[in-house]
Amino acid sequence: MLGGVKPSGARRSWWLREALTAEAAASPHLTAAAPPLRGSISADVVIIGGGYTGMWTALRISELEPSARVVLLEADICGGGPSGRNGGFVTNWWDEFPTLLQRYGPIGARQMGVAIEAAVDDVGAFCATNGIDAWFTKAGSLLVSAAPAQDGAWDVAVESLRAHGLADKYVPLSAADVAGRVRSPVFRDGVFMPGAATVQPAVLARGLRRVLLERGVTILEGTEAVEIDGHTRGPFGPLGAGARRAPTRRGTGVGFRPVRIRTRSTTGDGEVLAANAVLGLNAWAAGWPWFGRRLVTWSSYIVLTEPIPDRLADIGWTGGEGLADARFTLHYLRTTADGRIAIGGGGGTAGFGGRIGDVFTDSLDDVRRAAAGLRRLFPSIADVRIEDAWGGPIDITSDHLPWFGSVPGRPIHFVHGYSGNGVGPSVVAGRILAARAVEASADPSLALALANGGAPRAFPPEPARFIGARLVREAAARRESMEERGGSPPRLLREVSRLPRRIGYHLGPD
Ligand SMILES: Cc1cc2nc3c(=O)[nH]c(=O)nc-3n(C[C@H](O)[C@H](O)[C@H](O)COP(=O)(O)OP(=O)(O)OC[C@H]3O[C@@H](n4cnc5c(N)ncnc54)[C@H](O)[C@@H]3O)c2cc1C
């Protein structure tokens, strides 16, 4: 089924190749519009990371304070990381409602849910207003049980939403309802999130880049920040325990000291001095001293079939819904505008020590797992050719929610830890970070509970984290595969897979 397809970090994702080809045809001048930094430059705000987080932040700053000088640094090209590699699910957080309730109470949880849901429409509106054909399709998203052990995985969320008058956000479906949307011999009942959408993720990322350039943001691609405010990437430093504090005074007060970023690019070393900095580093954050212990990096891989519109019609999957099974090591699937299936997940692999290397882009094992998921979920299309495969890193926190903060005493603001679910949430993150960076203290985004949440619980230091993460993943994947085959996993396997929850992390199977 895989043929000769091998994932490779040296190759762009299929999404990004498509997006860059279209961009080169429509606006060839844009390709060279973001050259690497030469020498030194100053800014009101420097943003590090040219993914959705960095770019939504820059966009929002251009709305809040159009005269602000914004410089965005990206080591690769904008969208070269997970923002141009992801599954393109723009989901809501209603499935996370019980966790939100626990952390923020009923008002905070509802506000967060509403804000993330509204972000889906914001993505659609942004694309429509700016002529970005990112295939924005708001057809909702289905979570299905694909084995008896997965039945009712959504019950707690459905119940707590119902208790708070939000039943329409996450609607249980019978097996017949599921089959009315997509047919598989292993699908049972499920749950539907009507407010979710899908996009062509890299077209969205490159569209954001174009709009930012049009608004006068200075984008410096191929420019890596190698030192931030005197710190360098490397082995783990302090916990960053104080990073939960609210931002302190910034700007031009007495004793003001700009943030100094040293950069490296093909054109040599450079420097940016800025009054404020925003970090949208995603998994790369795990290599910086402030964040290392609070994030686990994890790989996620996607395989893409040849176009099979007739076969999609055979299984009734023509409505454009996003789809996932209810494993912990979940498979997520969606269709493309030309009738392919993109399927990701099935396990992934933990990274070590905040290093972002080949394990995130070149693992044939991870690709095989994703492809095996397609064969199991849709045996009738097991013969289709896989034409592409790629992977990328995700950054996981102990409670599966992103972590917003500011470096204590310094005007450096960040959000990391989307835990594999950042497409929609990054819109809200961009608002929060922009408001912090330009000190728009009345901005409603700053009142959101998450903007003021504390740091997530730390993970164990390396190598315990790496060993533990691999052990738990292996146990969970084996347990879930046995359950899918109708077997009863040994107690030891179940207990190891439950370990993270047993010791208080909001991660892993129950
Ligand atoms: C295979 C896969 C599938 C996914 N599917 C989904 C999905 O369907 N839905 C969903 O919501 N989420 C999904 N995600 C997660 C989602 O892609 C991320 O949460 C989101 O893209 C995060 O955006 P970001 O801007 O924070 O990070 P990124 O897109 O990773 O951007 C960070 C950028 O920072 C740059 N950078 C890092 N260090 C430096 C430095 N020192 N100097 C300069 N630049 C630097 C990197 O090159 C990178 O481009 C998926 C992720 C993967 C890998």
Briefly say what this structure is.
The chain is α+β, with helices and mostly antiparallel strands and 510 residues long.
Protein described:
The chain is 30% helix and 21% strand. The chain has 11 helices and 19 strands. It has helices spanning 14-26, 52-64, 97-129, 155-163, 175-181, 201-214, 309-314, 364-377, 425-437, 464-484, 491-502; strands at 39-48, 70-74, 89-90, 141-144, 171-173, 190-193, 197-198, 218-221, 223-228, 231-232, 259-265, 268-279, 296-305, 322-325, 331-335, 341-345, 386-396, 403-406, 412-416. The strands form 3 sheets. Strands 1, 2, 8, 9, 10, 11, 12, 18 and 19 form a 9-stranded mixed beta sheet that branches. Strand 11 (259-265) and strand 12 form a beta hairpin. Helix 2 (52-64) runs parallel beside helix 6, helix 2 packs across helix 9 (425-437) and helix 10 crosses helix 11. The longest helix is centred in the first third of the chain and has 33 residues, at 97-129. It is globular, with a radius of gyration of 22 Å. The relative contact order is 0.18. The structure holds flavin-adenine dinucleotide (FAD). Flavin-adenine dinucleotide (FAD) binds at residues 48-54, 73-76, 80-83, 85-89, 91, 224-225, 280-282, 284, 300, 302, 344, 391-392, 394, 418, 420-424, 426.
